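Hi everyone, sorry if this is the wrong subforum. Our group has a chain we'd like a structural model of before ordering constructs, and none of us has done structure prediction before. Sequence below.
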Amino acid sequence: MIEDLEKALAWLSNLGVATEKTRYASYLRTLKLIDKRWREGAQRAKDIPVDPQLMETSALEASQLVRIHEGLAVSPPDGLAAKLGLLVDGPLLETNERSANAGNAARDCAFELELASYFRRAGEVELGQGVDLTVRFRGIPLFIECKRPSSRKRITSNLDRASQQVRERLGQTALASYGIPAISVSKSHWNGWPLVRGESMESIRATMTDKIAEFDRQHVAPWFARQRDGRLIAVLIHFPYIAYAGDSPTILGTEIFVIGSRFILGTRAHQDLAELIAALGIA
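Answer:
Right subforum, don't worry. Here is the predicted structure as tokens:
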């Protein structure tokens, strides 16, 4: 990961985004210290003189930046450099974010760009055209608005806000088009500690699947039941995690789940959504 992070930071530098005094420089130093202590024989995380939350944040957010680099470095979308300049800002830890002083803007931007890197698999991506992302999938515009609610009780209101912004954008085009509100559970479900534990990777994935099913029952299904616009075809769930499976090395990742509207079953929109999910290679 260290080499990949260094490549990502060099990419930012080439785009004119300074990183030497940002949180990512701290993450790189932290990862190098962890690597050094492991090579010296440290057997447990507690043997490394790094705050556990900083250790895990460094690994998780470094891996996110690496994914953004890998997905957007070739033929970058317009406006990417400005977005990256915002991304590197913000507090060291997610738990130190304060919305009153725009302290959450950097990680909001990172979420948007991570999704942009995924959706590049499906088609051309535009940033900030009335919504966070516009994706041209086989000639069909997909309007995606990203939200990172700070608590579970704010999930529904964030879905409402995202869908309102999407509907406004849908209303500005005469083309057949769809909307997808996107929610990250990094703050609302993890409180800064995206940890999943299990005896094996199979049990880890089962736990994540169960959590998404619970999220659907509690939030998405009731929300969709109130919707009347069939162009809102799905809700995307962004699920970052750090997993410990038995004695295996720490597992870092992000799962992307797409929960389709039950009201489009049997329609062309349902077929288009299935083809989009296949193009993205996600659940």
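For your construct planning: The radius of gyration is 19 Å. The helical segments are 2-14, 23-39, 52-72, 80-87, 105-119, 155-170, 201-225, 268-280.
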